[in-house]
Amino acid sequence: MIQAFAFYLFATLMLFSGAVTIFSRNPVHSVLWLILAFFNAAGLMVLVGAEFIAMLLVIVYVGAVAVLFLFVVMMLDIDFAELRAGFVRNFPLGLLLAVVLFVELFVGLVVDNAGGLAIGKTSGAAAQGALSNTEAIGALLYTRYLFLFEAAGVILLVAMIGAIVLTHRQRSGVRGQNVAKQNARRPDEATVNMQPEIGKGVSL
Amino acid sequence: MNLLHSLQLTAAEELISVAGLVLLLVAAWSGDRASRAISIATVGVLVAAAAIALPALCGSLAGADVSAFGGQYKADAFSAFAKLLIYVGAAVTLIVAPAFFDRFRAMRAEFPILVLFAALGMGIMVSAGDLLTLYIGLELNSLAAYVLAAFLRTDDRSAEAGLKYFVLGSLASGILLYGISLTYGFSGTTSFDAIRVAYAHGMSIGATFGMVLILVGLGFKISAAPFHMWTPDVYEGAPTPVTTFFATAPKVAALGLLMRISLEAFGAQPDAWRQVIVAASLLSIVVGALGAIGQSNIKRLMAYSSINNVGFMLIGLAAGTKAGASAMLVYLAIYVAMSVAGFVAILMLRDADGNQVETIADLGGLSRTRPGLAAALAMVMFSLAGIPPLFGFWGKFVVFQAAVQANLLALASIGIAASVIGAFYYLKVVKVLYFDEPTDKVQGNSDLAHSILLVVFSVVLSPLGYLLTGWLNTLASSAASALFHVV
Q1: Average pLDDT over every residue of B196-216
Q2: Cβ pair B69:A145 closer than 8 A
Q3: How far are the Cα atoms of B88, B288, B315, B350 from residue B473, in angstroms, in the given order?
Q4: Is the Cβ of B72 closer than 8 Å to some Cβ of chain A?
Q5: Higher pLDDT, B38 or B361
Q6: Residue segments in chain A with a per-residue pLDDT below the cut of 50
Q7: ipTM summary value
Q8: Which domain holds residue B434?
Q9: What's the number of domains chain B is made of?
Q10: Chain CA centroid to CA A168, Å
Q11: Does A149 lie at the interface with B, CB-CB under 8 angstroms?
């Protein structure tokens, strides 16, 4: 009973926030609703026992992708009114695409019910029953695939070095923050008591 | 699978990664002032990694004893041979780079580190025993290479080279990945040995598609025609030390990977890939030879020359035999020596202001002003053309011999005919060097490191190099037999 309740709660909230993401006039609100949709999707994943995907959804989609969207939306100077003006003109095409997607989904479901498509052989051990998904993935990643996992980490490091090498440059005439200097500063050095005469300024 | 044993087998990669991280920290704290010291340390790391790899080559190791992580990584004689060539290419790049970048005040501490990580990726590529390892190694190398191509970012040509390489390289990676996914789908595994077993009794049409797409993706990386379009632009635009790097190490790595995947993963079905390799080989030889004729920039000329040479190397692979693979490795080693000597000589061509002289016409009469340099350059050109007394001839000879033994007479004869066309543009450079009026463009002194490198590699290319043939053949055949070690 409680499962069914949780499912309908997450599903309703997800559909609702998904719809609001589309219809919201303010793009920042859209992104925030999108985050709510992601959270509810994660809840659904937990319900079906895919806790690893749920964590990925929260960490990757909410933590990284959605926040990135938010930054992009807030930093780019996009005229959304102008974007929206083309809505009516592009509506038939959008509707057509939506219909095509829906039909494909339907056909896929029908075919799947008739039996799946076998293109290759699967190999490797099936999931061990005793372990949870997260434990099983972790056990593989840190033993069998350790070398590749670490090498993939090095790829990310190289990408980071590359981005910095290609974009970072020392610019002259910029007052950078000097934390050490700020910390070394004492209150008595920072403030000076002055008694300027009437009609005269202060030279700093 | 024993984790400790696996970690022991991947020691060269571990050393390079840890050293790269430590040097990165040094770079972060000491800044660009330390770039020279970091370069020297990096060369030291490469030498140490080569020393770790060497025993596998000398002991001609192969098989299950030297495969780490359940066959994902193979520290066999083949990977050791390729790694030695890769580390030589990377080390030469690091030695010649500071003098080049200092003139632009562009030497940065990240340069040697990126080269080191690229070498790490290439080491992973040639040791790959699994499609996952293949792709991760390839991406690690490629990402570092894109940045290196654009390293002189104030120079428009360098930025253009980096962007072009990045866009086309990503496209090739995408094609490769698609091929990998199809291969995985049809064979049900990513391990080379298991793919070989799965395809032992023939390949379906989809499996063939996957294989062809993988070959196309790798064909881009080795700049074999018809996937060579990026090569002249990137070689010309990239800073010359980086071009030296591109012409040597990544080429060795990608060709090694191509050999591994063709002979190991698809080794049970050589007829499936042979026609692709033969077509790419012929096209590369012809495109490389004809395309080079109109070039006026010596770096572009070297780019077409590398396309041409890749074509000759693929003849060895097309043979599909152990002799063919061994011949290809011999050619590869000689090609690395020729490229290094050629690019070091090109780096020494500087005018009075210290700028690079890259136009071939400006080299007129170099033999009278700088006889030593002109002789070295002429020797590289003769060697690339495969004129007999020089060592370049030996590489072509063994490759053609392997092709003839494998009954690929037509391929060998077209290759020989095309190498005559190729000789035309190499000899044109020699003619400019020796018989044209002196232009006196090339001035200035070269520093000691360049001269030493040039002398060493010129001696290898000279007829004295034939003293190495026995030794080189032994190593290459022990490396090649590692590829044919069926589990």
Answers
A1: 91
A2: yes
A3: 18, 27, 17, 37
A4: yes
A5: B38
A6: none
A7: 0.91
A8: 3-483
A9: 1
A10: 25
A11: no
**pLDDT above 90: residue B336:** yes
Whether the CB-CB separation of B12 and B49 falls below 8 Å is answered with yes
The whole-angstrom distance between A93's CA and the closest CA on chain B is 29
Residue type, B210: G
**A143 Cβ under 8 Å from any chain B Cβ:** yes
Taking only the tens place, the pLDDT of each residue in B386-436 is: 888 888 888 889 999 999 998 888 888 888 888 888 888 888 888 888 888
Handedness of CA B76, B78, B80, B83 (dihedral sign): negative
Q: Tell me how crowded residue B161 is: count the other CB atoms within 10 A of its CB.
A: 28
Q: What is the pLDDT of residue B131?
A: 93
Instruction: Give the single-character DSSP code of A62.
Output: I
Residue B53 and residue B106: Cα distance in Å, rounded? 33
Are B143 and A166 inside 8 Å of each other by CB? no
What distance in Å separates the CA atoms of residue B316 and residue B400, rounded to the nearest whole number?
Answer: 7
Using the predicted structure, report yes or no on whether residue B203 has a pLDDT greater than 90: no
Considering only CB atoms, which chain A residues are within 8 Å of B151?
A: 165
Average pLDDT (B455-461) is: 85
Chain A interface includes B261 (CB < 8 A): no
- Minimum Cα–Cα distance from B107: chain A residue: A165
Residue B201's φ and ψ, nearest 5 degrees, are -110, 40
Question: Closest Cα to residue B335, out of B407, B392, B264, B378?
Answer: B392
pTM of the shown model = 0.86
Task: Tell me the domain boundaries of chain A.
Answer: 132-169
Copy the structure tokens of residue B421. 């066309």
State how far Cα B138 lies from the chain centre. 13
